[in-house]
Amino acid sequence: MNKVKSLNRKDLLGLKDLSVDEIKLVLRTARSMKEVASRPIPKVPTLLGKHIVTLFYEASTRTRTSFNMAAKILSANITNVAISSSSVIKGENLIDTIKNLEVMGMDALIMRHSMAGAPALAGKNCQASIINAGDGFNEHPTQALLDIFTMKEKKGSLKGKKIVIVGDISHSRVARSNIWGLTKLGAKVVVVGPPTMIPKDIESMKVKVSYDLDREIKDADFIYMLRIQKERQESGLYPSIEEYHKLYGLNAERMKKARKDSVVMHPGPINRGIEMTSDVADGPYNVILEQVTNGVAVRAALLFLLLGGKNSSGE
């Protein structure tokens, strides 16, 4: 079977819509981009002359910064639109904002929005490529791709590997994108959290539901901790922070129940003392900073593939 050599799509909106071959193409290309990023002068002229814009209606550190670095590695121009000082504050709607950016010469828009479906709406109303950097509770595809890339670096093929995703599944676009991608690659995904934070229809995504973290981590290859998203939650989903951490937080004592080679992951930012204690966040089990490093490579790969770069490896 021939490997796909192109994404053959204008936009990246989610992993739900990506084929297995397309996911593998991004991961292969990211390996090349990671090598470029490690050079003394991490720069290639691949996207010289291309204009990329970031438009984030929600806060971001890792995603926005890594896209900036990825664009610069590929020699693209990048402009960051600050919502707080843009015409959005004056009442300009999403479509008008995007159309104005496009006529200025924008080739790609990296967009984060609190409304699920906003990037898809943007994609239908402009010719530029749209990359979803997180939309409401829906998806965060670039985070999932960098997570999967990191997992494959650690353990190779994910077929049959057990990934335990822990925490606020209901409000997590990261969880949804990871579930779509991991199940397509043959991984066994288990979601763990309070019943109030588990969507009723989640099993339709081919995952197992559990409420017992101690039981599930005993044979987990990866333990993926999610941030408690206070900004998106209604009150009353759990009795207290202390109770939540007791049942669903990671600490050194709980990690003794896990396999010696279990890997701890987190999309960041970490709420220390809630999802995990500092002895875990800074301990030998986790690859959290490696995830951040890999984010630059994966996002560079996506810009490369969507904006017409040719893969020098022939893949």
Describe this structure in words.
This protein is of the alpha/beta class and 315 residues long. It has 2 domains: 20-139 and 293-306, Aspartate/ornithine carbamoyltransferase (Rossmann fold); 141-291, Aspartate/ornithine carbamoyltransferase (Rossmann fold, 3-Layer(aba) Sandwich). It has 11 helices and 9 strands. It has a 5-stranded parallel β-sheet with strand order 7-6-5-8-9, covered by helices on one side. Strands 2-1-3-4 form a 4-stranded parallel β-sheet, sandwiched between helices. Helix 4 links the parallel strand 3 (108-113) and strand 4 (129-135). Helix 1 (20-37) crosses helix 5. The longest helix is centred in the C-terminal third of the chain and has 19 residues, at 288-306. The chain is globular and about 55 Å long. The two termini are 13 Å apart. 43% of the residues are buried.
Question: Do you know the CATH topology of the largest domain?
Answer: Rossmann fold
Q: What overall geometry do the principal axes of the alpha carbons give?
A: globular
- The Rg value, from CA coordinates, equals 19 Å
* Integer count of domains: 2
CATH class of the largest domain: Alpha Beta
Biggest sheet strand line-up: 7-6-5-8-9
Distance between the termini: 13 Å
Which stretches of 5+ consecutive residues score pLDDT under 50?
310-315
**Strand percent estimate:** 5-15%
Number of DSSP E strands: 9
* Tally of contiguous helical segments: 11
CATH architecture of the largest domain: 3-Layer(aba) Sandwich
